[in-house]
Specification:
Shape: elongated
Strand order of the largest sheet: 1-2
Structural class: mainly alpha
Largest sheet: 2 strands, parallel
Distance between the termini: 39 Å
Length: 90
């Protein structure tokens, strides 16, 4: 049986190549696909869409941060109004 496997995850190590090589060495019928792993190409993926005409994605990100990290509503509205991008991780 042939499988198609999407290798999602971090792009800084060669783990995808290791999996592909291991699959090939065991003669498995697997086709691998993956996200763009070239940083500049990945970062520029949305450039062809042009500049945003509103703060939709910034606002969405900040609202998610508000829900996940207990930052204050006032902080979120201030960041949206000043068009300041931020990302709270973990």
């Amino acid at each position: 049986m042939a499988l198609t496997v999407y290798l999602s995850g971090e792009i800084h190590t060669d783990w995808r190549q290791q999996i592909e090589q291991g699959s090939a060495s065991h003669n498995l019928e697997v086709t691998f696909t993956a996200p763009v792993t070239d940083h500049p190409a990945s970062d520029a993926a949305g450039d062809m869409l042009g500049a945003e005409d509103n703060n939709f994605w910034l606002a969405t990100t900040l609202i998610c941060c508000l829900l996940r990290k207990n930052i204050s509503f006032d902080s979120v509205t201030q960041l949206i109004s000043t068009n300041t991008a931020c990302l709270f991780l973990a």
